[in-house]
Design brief:
The chain is an alpha/beta fold. It is built from 16 helices and 13 strands.
């Protein structure tokens, strides 16, 4: 089968969750199908990135988005229409003509869209198609309103309303729908949201493999550090939780690893808090750390960082919000915090007790191995796509 994959950005390098998800799905789908990749991009895509995807795709088309057109679309959309800004950002008529041309040229059997950002381009196409909502984008936006500065609140509220409406109305234009977790499925406002198939993420167990390295850091947090839920999480951790930890153990060190650290994240740097920015080999930082912590307060979807840490046999502490999508069991294969004091107790308990550290890490590892593989999750997507023909 010939599958046309339409994305809002080029899926390499793997510094964002959406890229990681679709890259591995393409990799798995290419074992049985011909994959044609079409990616929008506001940035220059390096040839080295295209070369990586060439291993799995028969054709690769990159559509460069003009930043002037993007900004004009956003202003026009916000002031004169009720369209979602997420959709307006990625949509323009010249890209539409190119995508229409590619569909005529390649004659795919199926279209696979990741995120509602790109659905406007193909929603009226007669070719069978699947939409991966990935997560509940509108709900994620809504959770950001409360902590946003006053001058952003209005635009976030407006966009939340528009996104909810668009998530709802786009539903009937697609033959199949997928999402990352049950929690996110329930947040899609549609009478048929139970028809959305759960397609979880997996872990690249070759990359994220347990290994022994001398421990340099007590705690580690990873992720794209320009992404608001990650920024919110580390700011909360450093300002609310770590002072309680340092009161009892002043020597405890936290490392924050990930691309594009925002000004708020860079401000957290100190002798006890290391901020790395982009790193080539993130797995070595997991190996140098004792405990993984992700006290997510906002956001949706499944946290890949938790899967990676558990795959590398790190004991993990997270929030109920993040664990709702993961489905691990408190005190059996993960520790869940609800308050500053909870997180402090969990951190100190794991740092003080090497045996418990090892036991929780081992159980966490078996949990992800049993429940999260790219082969298993993409097989669900594959079945969905192929049974519609």
């Amino acid at each position: 089968m010939k599958i046309f994959v339409l994305l809002s950005r080029f899926p390499y390098p793997l510094e964002k969750g959406d890229k990681l998800r679709v890259f591995n799905q393409i990799k798995e789908l290419s074992k049985k199908h011909e994959v044609i990749l079409c990616a929008l991009s506001a940035e220059k895509v390096e040839q080295s990135s295209i070369d990586v995807l060439s291993e799995y795709c028969s054709k690769i088309e990159v559509i460069k988005l003009s930043k002037i057109k993007i900004y004009w679309n956003l202003i026009k959309c916000l002031l004169f229409t009720d369209q979602s800004l997420q959709v307006a950002y990625f949509y323009n008529s010249s890209a539409q003509k190119k995508i229409d041309g590619f569909l005529t040229k390649y004659k795919p059997d199926h279209i696979y869209c990741q995120l509602i950002r790109v659905t406007e381009y193909v929603r009226h196409s007669k070719i069978p198609k699947t939409l991966d909502y990935m997560d509940a984008l509108a709900r994620g936006m809504e959770r950001r309103i409360e902590d946003a500065p006053f001058y952003l609140k209005w635009s976030l509220k407006t966009e939340t309303t528009r996104l909810k409406r668009y998530e709802h109305f786009i539903f009937d234009d697609f033959d199949h729908h997928t999402i990352i977790s049950e929690q996110d499925r329930e947040l899609i406002v549609h009478i048929k949201n139970e028809d959305i198939k759960i397609v979880k993420n997996g872990v690249d167990y070759d990359t994220f493999k347990y290994g022994e390295l001398p421990k340099e850091y007590d705690l580690i947090f990873t992720g794209n550090m320009g992404y608001p839920p990650n920024v919110d999480s580390v700011v909360y951790l450093v300002y609310n939780v770590m002072p309680l930890v340092w009161k009892e153990k002043p020597e405890v060190k936290l490392i924050i690893v990930g691309a594009q650290p925002s000004a708020k994240v860079l401000k957290l740097k100190s002798e006890k808090v290391i901020v790395t920015g982009w790193v080539e080999e993130i797995s070595s930082y997991y190996q140098k750390s004792k405990v993984f912590i992700a006290p997510m307060q906002i956001g949706t979807g499944l946290q890949n960082k938790l899967l990676e840490a558990m795959a590398m046999k790190l004991p993990c502490i997270t929030s109920q919000l993040a664990n709702n999508a993961l489905g691990a069991i408190h005190k059996e294969n993960i520790l869940i915090g609800n308050t500053d004091e909870d997180y402090k107790k969990h951190i100190l308990m794991l740092i003080d007790d090497a045996n418990y550290q090892k036991e929780l890490a081992e159980k966490g590892y078996h949990f992800v191995k049993e429940n999260y593989t790219w082969e298993g999750s993409t097989a669900i997507l594959d079945k969905l796509i192929t049974t519609s023909h």
